[in-house]
Write a structure and sequence with these properties.
This protein has four helices and nine strands. The protein has helices at about 1-10, 20-45, 50-65, 135-150; strands spanning about 10-15, 80, 105-110, 115-120, 155-165, 170-185, 185-195, 200-210, 220-224. It has a seven-stranded antiparallel sheet with strand order 5-8-7-6-4-3-9, covered by helices on one side. A hairpin with a 2-residue loop joins strand 6 (about 170-185) and strand 7 (about 185-195). It has one domain (about 1-45, about 70-224): Thiol Ester Dehydrase, Chain A (Roll). With about 220 residues, the chain is of the alpha+beta class. It starts with a helix and ends with a strand. It binds octanoyl-coenzyme A. Octanoyl-coenzyme A binds near residues 149, 185, 186, 206 and 210. It is found in: Cell projection, Ruffle membrane; Cytoplasm; Membrane. GO terms for molecular function: hydrolase activity. It catalyses: (5Z,8Z,11Z,14Z)-eicosatetraenoyl-CoA + H2O = (5Z,8Z,11Z,14Z)-eicosatetraenoate + CoA + H(+); tetradecanoyl-CoA + H2O = tetradecanoate + CoA + H(+); (9Z)-octadecenoyl-CoA + H2O = (9Z)-octadecenoate + CoA + H(+); decanoyl-CoA + H2O = decanoate + CoA + H(+). This is Acyl-coenzyme A thioesterase THEM4.
């Protein structure tokens, strides 16, 4: 566990950035991730022929060469400033700089409920025309974890139990979660994902406050 603890501590950094600089970086790198995100369904769905695909790949290779000229050699981690402006821009579910992240924003209600409306494109397919079960788990893990955090008990996922009640369509979906109770360092959270025809996946999670630093800002909605 020491190696994991060292890695988490190393990547949990007050980088002292001003709000202006954070806004500048968000405006620069957010749209880059959006462009890459838009490429994913295109790779699945394009009917372009040999020449167009070859040409597109040459453009992409040029873009990758430009972007790779200077880059960090470690994951993004958790960065914050003295105002408590936390950034998890590499996060797989809602990282501003992560093209696979399907959520733009997690909203917090005063009663502790957290929720998100989101869109899963064809790159998230599992069963034909439907959402991959692991993707539902991905989204629910984040939502339940955020409900634990908002409820004052931030933690790592210890156990996540899912019940897939009916196939989850691709497209526009809704997810929500709420902290039910805590026992010592353990937070018990429930949630679900619903589509146009009701609840598709139900989740129960136990989140455990670890012996290392975690984001504990409670009083704000999380936006990419
Ligand atoms: C805003 C943030 C949202 C984040 C959402 C995304 C969350 C994630 O993806 S986290 C990544 C996935 N999870 C992980 O990798 C966790 C890996 N596991 C670990 O790091 C550790 O096992 C950890 C931190 C969960 C628990 O370790 P540790 O603190 O040593 O637990 P330990 O002291 O043995 O047990 C504490 C209590 O929790 C219970 N417990 C321990 N592990 C588990 C578990 N996996 N499930 C349920 N209960 C557990 C113990 O029984 C004990 O209960 P009690 O106090 O009643 O006796």
């Amino acid at each position: 566990m020491t190696d994991a603890l060292d890695a988490v501590a190393r990547l949990f950094v007050n980088d002292g950035l001003s709000e202006d600089e954070i806004a500048r970086q968000a405006a620069l790198y957010g749209p880059l991730a959006d462009d890459v995100r838009a490429l994913i369904p295109l790779a699945v769905q394009t009917r372009a022929g040999d020449d167009d695909v070859r040409q597109a790949r040459e453009h992409l290779a040029a873009a990758m060469e430009l972007l790779g000229r200077t880059k960090e050699d470690h994951p993004f981690g958790t960065r914050f400033n003295d105002n408590g402006n936390f950034r998890v821009w590499g996060n797989a579910v809602m990282g501003l700089r992560n093209a696979i992240a399907p959520l733009h924003r997690i909203n917090h209600d005063p009663d502790g409920r957290v929720w998100a409306d989101f869109h899963l494109h064809v790159g998230f397919e599992g069963p034909a025309g439907h959402t991959h079960g692991g993707v539902s788990a991905l989204v629910l893990d984040q939502l339940l974890g955020d409900a634990a955090r908002v409820g004052g008990s931030p933690g790592m996922t210890g156990t996540l139990t899912l019940r897939y009640r009916k196939p989850t369509p691709l497209g526009d979906l809704h997810g929500e979660a709420k902290l039910d109770r805590t026992e010592g360092r353990k937070a018990f959270v429930t949630g679900h994902i619903s589509g146009p025809h009701g609840i598709c996946v139900e989740a129960e999670g136990i989140f455990i406050k670890p012996h290392w630093p975690v984001e504990d800002g409670r009083d704000r909605n999380q936006t990419r």
